[in-house]
Amino acid sequence: MDDLMQALFNDILDRLLEKYYGQTAYAQRRMRRDEIGCTLWNQLSQDQKEQLEELQRAYDDVQMAELEAMFLASFDQCKSLALSHSA
Fold first, then answer.
1. Per-residue confidence (pLDDT) for residue 87, from 0 to 100
2. What gap in Å lies between CA 13 and CA 26, rounded to an integer?
């Protein structure tokens, strides 16, 4: 993303995203994920914990890339809707 798009994306993450969580099952899903993660974490050796942390960072990177792509697609869709479609 260019600097302007990155600034808009960061603003949404910092100020707006949280207010939309209530319209989804975000809190419940996050709680369930954390419960499962805690149970798994307590069963792992130190080497396995390090490997799991590395895997989680990789998942986080993919999720952030997906959020960025969704933001860019949404921005393009809004821009398209704002354009005149008459010839």
1. 58
2. 15
